[in-house]
Automatic annotation (TrEMBL), chain A:
Its cofactor is FAD. This is Digeranylgeranylglycerophospholipid reductase. NCBIfam families: GG-red-SF (TIGR02032). Is involved in the reduction of 2,3-digeranylgeranylglycerophospholipids (unsaturated archaeols) into 2,3-diphytanylglycerophospholipids (saturated archaeols) in the biosynthesis of archaeal membrane lipids. Catalyzes the formation of archaetidic acid (2,3-di-O-phytanyl-sn-glyceryl phosphate) from 2,3-di-O-geranylgeranylglyceryl phosphate (DGGGP) via the hydrogenation of each double bond of the isoprenoid chains.
TrEMBL record, chain B:
Residues 1-27, 28-57 form the 4Fe-4S ferredoxin-type domain. The keyword Metal-binding applies. This is 4Fe-4S binding protein. It comes from the Archaea. Gene3D superfamilies: 3.30.70.20. Pfam families: Fer4. Keywords: 4Fe-4S, Electron transport, Iron, Iron-sulfur, Metal-binding, Repeat, Transport. InterPro entries: 4Fe4S_Fe-S-bd (IPR017896), 4Fe4S_Fe_S_CS (IPR017900), Fe-S_Ferredoxin (IPR050572). It comes from Methanococcoides cohabitans.
Length: 406, 57
C-alpha cells in the first residue's frame, strides 16, 4: 500500500471491481479495498443475471455459471401461472451465477489490469479538505492508515457509508428497502431451465418469492418483502412457511440474508473528488431488485469518467458531472420506469394479481422482457394499470429498453 | 437508548446499516457495531430479515 493513488475504490463487489478494472486498464494508479477477508462471501444475492448484458463486461466462464435459464414462470396468489420463455435464437437468456466465484473473478480482472487489491481493509472515514474529498482513512489488520487519492469511488453496497461521509444522504427508508432471506437448497425438484416467482400478499407482502435454479437439482429459494411490511412476520418466517408448504423435501445447505434498496434514484451520486456506484448509489432495480448489471454498467461509466477527469485535472463535482449524466440517461431511466411499476404493484390486492395473471393466460410470450409482460398486462387491464400508461408512450418512441434483469 | 444485536442470530447482511437514519451502525466482518449516534428509533429492528435486533428501552 502506498500513501497516494489516482483513485481508491471502496468495496470489491461488481461495481467496485469493474470501476477499478476500467480505470487501471487506462493506466491509472488504482487501490481497490474490500473490508471482508474474502471477496464475494458471504453472498447477499439471488444471483440471477441477463446473459446479453453480462457479456458486455466479461466473457462467461463455466466456473461461475450454475444454470442457464430460458424463461420465467410467475404464479399469482391463486396459482395461475404465466410463463415467459425466450424462443428467439433458441437460447437461454439468463444465468444463475456463483457469486462467490464471480466476484472473485471480477476482482482478479482488476488486479490483472494493474489495480492493487487489499482485503480485510475497511474505510473508516474520508479525508476531506475544504469541501473536497482527498482520500480515505482505512483500517487494515487493526492498524489505521491515511491514503490520499484524486478520486474516491464509493462502491460499498447497501450499507454504504462513503456517500454519507461526503454529505450525501443515502440512508434508505424501510418502505424503500426489500428485506430479504434466501436458502440454497438441495432436492429443489424444479425445472432447472426456469426461474419461478410467487406473488401475493400472504406469501410475500409487497415483494415476491423466487426460485432460481443452481444446477444439480439445487436452487436459491428466497423472499423479499418491503421493510415497512416487516415486523411480526419477518422475511425468514415467511420463507420458512413457504418451504414447509411447498418444498418439504428440500434440504437447506446455505442461508443468505440482505437488504435491497428499491428507493429509485437518489438526488446526487457525485461530490468533489467522489463518485458512488452500484448499491451504494441505490442503482438497483426497484421492481426486480436486480443490481448486478446496473452496478457493472455504472462501474464502467465511473471508471471512464474518472480517467477523463484526472487527465483534465478536474476532479471536482463539475469534472465528474459526466458520470451523473451518463448513468441517469441509461440506468436511471430504467430505474425511474421500474419505480412507477413498483409503486403500482405494491398496492395490488391478491384479487388484482389473480385477475392480472388470468388476463394473460392466452398470451403467448416469446420474450423475457419485463416491458413485453407489462404491455400485455396493460392492454388487457387498462383501468387497473392506468398509472403505467406513460411507460408505453416511451416504448413507442424506443426511448427505453427494459432488459431481462434479476 | 440504544439497541441490542443478538450476534448469535445476526446474519451480518448490513440491511440495518443501510436504513439507520443517523449512521450509527457499521457492519464489520461478522458483527454489527453501534456507536453513540444511535437514538433507539427502532427502524433497524423493523427491517432486520432475521429479527436479530432489539431496542434497549
Amino acid at each position: 500500500m502506498k500513501n497516494e493513488y489516482d483513485i481508491i475504490v471502496v468495496g470489491a463487489g461488481p461495481a467496485g471491481s469493474i470501476t477499478a478494472k476500467t480505470a487501471a486498464e487506462k493506466g491509472l494508479d488504482v487501490l481497490l479495498i474490500e473490508k471482508r477477508q474474502e471477496i464475494g462471501d458471504p453472498i447477499r444475492c439471488a444471483e440471477g443475471v441477463g446473459k446479453y448484458n453480462l457479456q458486455q463486461h466479461i466473457e462467461p466462464d463455466p466456473r461461475w455459471i450454475c444454470a442457464d435459464v430460458k424463461g420465467s414462470r410467475i404464479f399469482s396468489p391463486d396459482g395461475t401461472m404465466v410463463e415467459m420463455a425466450e424462443e428467439i435464437s433458441g437460447g437461454e437468456v439468463g444465468y444463475v451465477l456463483e457469486r462467490k466465484i464471480f466476484d472473485r473473478a471480477l476482482a482478479n480482472e482488476s488486479a490483472l489490469a494493474g489495480a492493487e487489491v487489499m482485503v480485510k481493509t475497511r474505510a473508516t472515514d474520508l479525508i476531506i479538505e475544504g469541501n473536497t474529498v482527498c482520500g480515505i482513512k482505512l483500517m487494515h489488520m487493526g492498524e489505521e492508515y491515511e491514503v490520499r487519492s484524486k478520486i474516491v469511488i464509493g462502491a460499498d453496497g447497501m450499507e454504504s457509508k462513503v456517500g454519507r461521509w461526503a454529505g450525501i444522504n443515502t440512508s434508505v427508508k424501510p418502505e424503500d428497502m426489500e428485506t430479504c432471506a434466501q436458502y440454497l437448497v438441495a432436492n429443489a425438484n424444479i425445472d432447472q431451465e426456469f426461474c419461478y416467482f410467487y406473488l401475493g400478499n400472504e406469501v410475500a407482502p409487497a415483494g415476491y418469492i423466487w426460485l432460481f435454479p443452481k444446477g444439480g437439482n439445487k436452487a436459491n429459494v428466497g423472499i423479499g418483502i418491503l421493510g415497512s411490511e416487516s415486523g411480526e412476520q419477518r422475511a425468514i418466517d415467511l420463507l420458512n412457511d413457504f418451504m414447509e408448504k411447498n418444498m418439504p423435501e428440500a434440504r437447506i445447505i446455505e442461508m443468505v440474508v440482505g437488504g435491497v434498496p428499491v428507493s429509485g434514484t437518489i438526488d446526487r451520486t457525485i461530490a468533489n473528488g467522489l463518485i458512488l456506484v452500484g448499491d451504494a448509489a441505490r442503482q438497483s432495480d426497484p421492481i426486480t431488485g436486480g443490481g448486478i448489471i446496473n452496478a457493472m454498467d455504472a462501474g464502467k461509466m465511473a471508471g471512464e469518467v474518472a480517467v477523463k477527469a484526472i487527465r483534465n485535472g478536474d476532479c471536482s463535482e463539475k469534472g465528474l458531472q459526466e458520470y451523473e449524466d451518463l448513468w441517469r440517461d441509461t440506468i436511471g431511466k430504467e430505474i425511474d420506469n421500474s419505480l412507477v411499476v413498483k409503486e403500482t404493484f405494491v398496492n395490488f390486492t391478491d384479487e388484482d394479481l389473480n385477475s392480472l395473471a388470468k388476463s394473460l393466460q392466452n398470451v403467448n410470450f416469446t420474450s423475457m422482457s419485463l416491458m413485453d409482460l407489462l404491455l400485455a398486462l396493460f392492454k388487457a387491464n387498462k383501468k387497473l394499470l392506468w398509472n403505467l400508461r406513460g411507460l408505453f408512450k416511451d416504448i413507442v418512441k424506443n426511448d427505453i429498453d427494459f432488459k431481462y434483469r434479476t | 437508548m440504544s439497541i441490542i444485536v443478538n450476534k448469535y442470530k445476526c446474519g451480518y447482511c448490513g440491511a440495518c446499516v443501510g436504513v439507520c437514519p443517523t449512521g450509527a451502525l457499521e457492519l464489520i466482518e461478522t458483527w454489527i457495531e453501534v456507536d453513540n449516534k444511535c437514538t433507539g428509533c427502532g427502524i433497524c429492528q423493523k427491517v432486520c430479515p432475521l429479527g436479530a435486533i432489539e431496542v434497549d428501552r
